[in-house]
Amino acid sequence: MDDDQLIQKELLPNEQSPTEPTRRDFLYLTAAAFGAVGVGSVAWPFIHSLNPAADTLALSTTEVNIGAVEPGQAITITWRGKPVFIRRRTPKEIDEAAQVKLDELRDPQADKDRVQKPEWLILVGVCTHLGCVPLGQKSSDPRGDYDGWFCPCHGSHYDTSGRVRKGPAPKNLAVPTYKFLSESKVLIG
Amino acid sequence: MGQKGRAEFKNPVIAWVDERLPLFSMMKNEYGVFPTPKNFNYFWNFGAIAMVMLITMIATGLVLAMNYAANTGLAFESVERIMRDVNYGWLLRYVHANGASMFFVAVYIHIFRGLYYGSYKRPRELLWILGVLIFLLMMATAFMGYVLPWGQMSFWGATVITNLFSAIPLVGEHIVTWLWGGFSVDNPTLNRFFVFHFLLPFVIVGVVFMHIWALHVTGSSNPLGIEMKTEKDSVPFHPYYTMKDGFGILVFLIFYCLFVFFAPNTLGHPDNYIPANPMQTPPHIVPEWYFLPFYAILRAAPDIGIPFTKIILISSKLAGVIGMFGSIAILFILPWLDRSPIRSSIFRPWYSKAMIVFVIAFILLGCAGYNPADANLTLFGRDTHIPWLWIARVAALYYFAHFLVLVPLFAKFEPRPELPPSIHEAVLAKKNNGGKPVAPAPMER
Question: By the CB < 8 Å criterion, does B317 face chain A?
């Protein structure tokens, strides 16, 4: 469209075809776009204020002494308000976890990818279904059909690597980031 | 409300106010002379009863909030202080806690009334949609209110329900962290739940106002499901239905008081008198009774995948969440699923029976939700080896089939008897027939 035609368009707005976009359409759209950006940037502080605050985020690491845990025993510690399971596995449990074929698993993951030292299994103790704490830390607890953990809420079973084997949970128990500070100390988070 | 003229008032003060703000005219038009079908049965009481419950909940909630501390370290103790030390605190709390249950009793009957007598149909679709919205808001409010005492069921109920959102692909985890304001249900969560628990009832009041407004534009439906045609079909709201509603409210309050004074904890869970412990899940988490059918749908869903392969398209968790929210969302579109021109079940031989099965399925879902996830049905103390899970699956399937298959099919193929010519004539015919309803004559479709 050359300049003459454009001028014509501006001067005679009633005669243009209704499908042709006009300058006015352009102004409406840019105004609406700026308005949307404005609303969004005002809304963001409100929305983001509901996200974890700085002091909540600051609680993101925990140091644990694991020196007193014997093979076959487990302890539960708190990390970010959630339970973390630390289980010192027996050779039998390690063996059971390693023997499982990956295609039997709902969320396939090898045992060696879930531990740094095979003896120490460290997991977030929150069922991946709806967030209950699975049973199995105490020796008197039910440990489910696979000798790991059993979630009492909706009946998910986890094995000795914390992998889901049965029930509604979609994923394995999460492995938190952690590192061994020494033989008897581990830093979680 | 409806476009009606101003009324005359003898009292000069009332007349002065009414000329400037016609509040008194509105009350007279909408609640005094308002023409109402003359054939309401007692099912039509439950809107007014629900209104009384809403007012009761706000009144008691207001004074309870003055003694409650929304902090994880103080919440449980502050509720115990209300129970022991605050004057009449025990009464106000029991009225509030059981009031939630009674509000749901009234609303469930009110919804059933709407379903059974086809109150959701044209021209009352928007009225119905606003009602479903109120129901949703009530559920959110009740859920957050149950978290406030910060007992074991409060904490774990909140954990399970907020975790539902983690089923959303990709952003689920972020949404849950955002809802919590942390990495688990904790102090920020309790704080914001208290704020919303306080705010939402007033939002409900707003939607209720629109619900009633819409009602007064279309006028009430009635058990026959035919519109009022002449003055003979109606009676003025006052004194006829102010009386009938008043009577119904009194009977309902007696039922309510039986719980408040004689069984105040029957509808709750003993576990909620144990302070919240994030390290230990109670052996059996149960929501409040009014959520049980939806909880059962949540748990009933299996993995949905391609048959004969191991490919899972929708995990059971996501499927459960979709099912649970879908079971309520489906109510929003009900007016368009049911295209039958006949409203009332009285004249719908098939739909009326399907409604009975629907209610049974809904109650069965409730029972399934109450039982542990892996429990079997026990009858007369004997294990039948029928897992509740499968009962829940069948009932949930019926729930959806009712709305998505039966209702649209019935709208097409159900026989349509001839409707009475008017409410007035139907009422008279019933009276002359010795109180028995006159069997509708079958008619060719």
Answer: yes
Cα B301 from chain centre: 23
| Best of A126, A128, A129, A138 to mutate (most B CBs within 10 Å, chain B) | A129
Task: Provide the terminal-to-terminal Cα distance of chain A, rounded to the nearest Å.
Answer: 63
Q: Which of B184, B322, B389 to mutate to test the interface with A (most CBs of A within 10 A)?
A: B184
C-alpha–C-alpha distance, residues B116 and B354, integer Å? 10
The reply to whether B160 falls in a domain is: yes
Contact A133 B283 (CB under 8 A): no
pLDDT at site A140 = 84
CATH C-level class of A56-188 = mainly beta
Look up the pTM and report it.
Answer: 0.88
Task: Compute the CA torsion angle A92, A95, A97, A101 (nearest 10 deg).
Answer: -140
What φ, ψ does residue A14 adopt, rounded to 5°? -75, -20
Length of chain A counted residue by residue: 189
DSSP state letter for B268: S
Q: Is B400 exposed, middle or buried (0-12, 13-18, 19+ CB in 10 A)?
A: middle
Domain-embedded: residue B4: no
In this complex, do B317 and A131 lie within 8 Å of one another by their Cβ atoms? no
Query: Is A40 near chain B, with CB under 8 Å?
Result: no
Domain range annotation of chain A: 3-48, 56-188
- Which one, of B320, B343, B40, lies nearest residue A167 by Cα? B320
Q: Is the pLDDT of residue A5 over 70?
A: no
Provide the residue range defining the domain that includes B178: 28-282
Final residue of a structural domain among B239, B255, B282: B282
- Report the C-alpha gap between A59 and B317 in whole angstroms: 30
| B76 and B220 belong to one structural domain | yes
**Is A154 tagged catalytic?**
yes
pLDDT digits (tens, 9 = 90+) for A83-142: 999 999 998 889 888 888 888 888 888 888 899 998 999 999 999 887 889 998 888 888
